[in-house]
Design a protein that fits this description.
It comes from Rhizodiscina lignyota. It is a single-pass membrane protein. Belongs to the SRP receptor beta subunit family. One of its GO terms (molecular function) is hydrolase activity. By secondary structure, the chain is of the alpha/beta class. The chain folds into two domains: 39 residues, no CATH class; 248 residues, Rossmann fold, CATH 3.40.50.300. 40% of the residues lie in helices and 13% in strands. Strands 2-3-1-4-5-6 form a six-stranded mixed β-sheet, sandwiched between helices. Helix 6 links the parallel strand 5 and strand 6. Helix 4 runs parallel beside helix 5. The longest helix is centred in the C-terminal third of the chain and has 29 residues.
Length: 295
């Protein structure tokens, strides 16, 4: 028995062809396997993402094609969410790369991220709400596209239909983000989740500039908040047993609503103008810059 074991060991360590082949295969494959394991362990499995929302007709899906291809393409009414992988353009620098040396090879890499486009029709907005209700560890921000040319009204004292629709949708998005903060189980709260209000179609003569878009949405959300609060209070008076969740957007639902109030729940809001389609082409540099600040 000992002799047979000794013979096997002698053959295994001897200069035979099978031993040489096996040794060469192990020597070549082992470093590759170790590198692959370490790379997968340290490389994030998911890219950072941005949620793209907004009413129908705001130019949201056209913006998605510009992000993806650099130029707008014909679109149709979105029925289901879609996700595309996008790369930051060379003209925009990610915030995480601002302090890296020019000689650092990683500084020349253009970050990749995902954009999740959701339907804007009123009956399909549950897709966007579901994205916000479930945990999204890689979500870096929300881009809310609004048609700035549909926000002004020809009738004094009456809100434009486009303004009312956009403000109602934005109100519901912000209320979900506020509940995300107030319902957090830890005292620290969830991480910051910025919101970009992309005021689209600024190339049109009837479009409101970004600052007026901001004030118009704040005023309309104030009106919507007051109307909904009154409706809930009236329901509670009629039925004293009604247990309604009363969470008003902003500072307790009193006074004027301002976007700055959302910073208290880790939701900074920025309004930036631009246009997806125009006589001189797309102008979305301000939106690219905002995305770069979040990466």
């Amino acid at each position: 028995m000992n002799q047979r074991l000794e013979d096997l060991l002698t053959k295994a360590w001897g200069p035979s062809l099978p031993v040489i082949i096996v040794t060469a295969i192990v020597a070549l494959l082992l470093p590759i396997l170790v590198h692959t394991f370490l790379y997968r362990a340290r490389t994030p499995t998911s890219l950072p993402s941005f949620l793209l929302v907004g009413p129908s007709g705001s130019g949201k899906t056209s913006l998605l094609t510009v992000f993806e291809n650099g130029s707008p393409a014909p679109t149709h009414l979105s029925q289901t969410p879609s996700t595309v992988q996008v790369q930051l353009p060379p003209s925009t620098k990610a915030d995480s790369q601002k302090y890296r040396s020019e000689h650092d090879p990683t500084a020349k890499q253009r970050p990749k991220f995902l954009i999740i486009d959701t339907p804007g029709h009123g009956k399909l907005r549950n897709h966007a709400f579901e994205q916000l209700r479930k945990p999204q560890p890689h979500l870096k921000g929300i881009i809310f596209v609004v048609d700035s040319a549909s926000l002004s009204s020809d009738t004094p004292g009456r809100s434009a239909a486009g303004l009312t629709e956009a403000a109602q949708y934005l109100h519901d998005i912000l209320l979900l983000l506020q509940k995300r903060y107030t319902g957090a189980k830890s005292s620290k709260g969830p991480p910051e989740l910025p919101v970009l209000i992309a005021a689209n179609k600024l190339d049109l003569f009837t479009a409101l500039p970004a600052q007026l878009v901001k004030s118009a949405l704040e005023a309309e959300i104030t009106r919507i908040r007051t109307t909904r609060a009154k409706g809930l209070l009236d329901s509670a008076v009629k039925d004293e047993t009604l247990e309604e969740e009363r969470e008003w957007l902003g500072d307790g639902g009193e006074g004027k609503f301002e976007f700055g109030q959302m910073e208290e729940v880790n939701v900074p809001i920025k309004v930036v103008g631009g246009n997806v389609i125009g006589a001189d082409g797309s102008d979305i540099s301000g939106w690219w810059e905002w995305i770069g600040e979040q990466l």
